[in-house]
Every structure is written in structure tokens, then in C-alpha cells.
Design a protein that fits this description.
- The structure is a single chain.
- This protein is of the alpha+beta class.
- It has a single domain, classed as VC0802-like (2-Layer Sandwich), CATH 3.30.2130.10.
- Helices cover 30% and strands 32% of the residues.
- Strands 2-3-1-4-6-5 form a six-stranded antiparallel sheet.
- Strand 2 (40-44) and strand 3 form a beta hairpin.
- The mean pLDDT is 96.
Length: 132
């Protein structure tokens, strides 16, 4: 299935879904520690960044500072689509919400402040309505 590239279609059909749980960003030297199940990994010069459930980080003794909620945009966005990340980030920024975006092959994933997750979903749903 080919991903969507039309920005208006992406915005009107993004259907933000709040995934259960609390997620954190941690970094390790080397491999993923045993017992840890990251939902995202990013290899950087400084180490391996893990986005993982907070309970996994706590159990493994990993340090973190930011506790996030994970929102999935349930539209199959093409990797070459233009403007989705910018539109989403702008709407969240206008509401004073930080947003860390990760693009998967099928969907975009947003990590927003945990305590403001419901508000972030409302902002995204409003963006979808306004884009129709």
C-alpha cells in the first residue's frame, strides 16, 4: 500500500491515537540493555537513544528527564509527504506543547508532555477538522 502524500488528505484523516503508558528518552553506550523494550532507537555519535516505557527505564536504572505520552497519527503517510510534520508541530507549538516526532514506515509518532496528552489530542483533532 502506497502512503498518502496530499497534505490536506493527511491532515483531515490523521486520526490521532493516544497509546497507553508513559514513555521516556534515555541514552546508553552500546546495545539495548536486557529487559528493555524500546519503541524507537536512534544511533547517534554520543550513544544509542532509546524511547521506551518508563517502567522499563526504571527497572533498568536508566536516567531520563522527559516523561512523554505517545500519539500515533493513524494515516499511512508517505515518507516523501511534504508539510505534515510542520503543520502538526506548528499547531502543537501554538498551544505551547513540545513535540518530538518520529517517522515510521507507515505512520508518524509524536511524543508530547505526558500531563498534557489529552490536550495534544484535542489540538490535533481540531487541526484535522479545520483542514477539511
Amino acid at each position: 500500500m502506497t502512503g498518502e502524500t496530499d497534505l490536506r488528505t493527511l491532515l483531515t484523516s490523521m486520526r490521532p491515537r493516544l497509546n497507553p503508558g508513559r514513555y521516556v528518552f534515555a541514552t546508553v553506550d552500546g546495545d539495548v540493555p536486557p529487559g528493555v523494550s524500546p519503541v524507537v532507537t536512534v544511533a547517534e555519535e554520543e550513544g544509542l537513544t532509546l524511547v521506551l516505557p518508563q517502567r522499563d527505564a526504571d527497572a533498568a536504572g536508566l536516567a531520563y528527564e522527559y516523561v512523554a505520552a505517545w500519539i500515533t497519527l493513524c494515516v499511512h503517510s508517505a515518507l516523501e509527504a511534504v508539510g505534515l510534520t510542520a503543520a502538526v508541530a506548528r499547531s502543537l507549538a501554538d498551544a505551547g506543547l513540545s513535540c518530538n516526532v518520529v517517522a515510521g514506515f507507515h505512520h508518524d509518532h509524536l511524543f508530547v508532555p505526558y500531563e498534557r496528552a489529552a490536550e495534544a489530542v484535542e489540538v490535533l483533532e481540531d487541526l484535522a477538522r479545520r483542514s477539511a
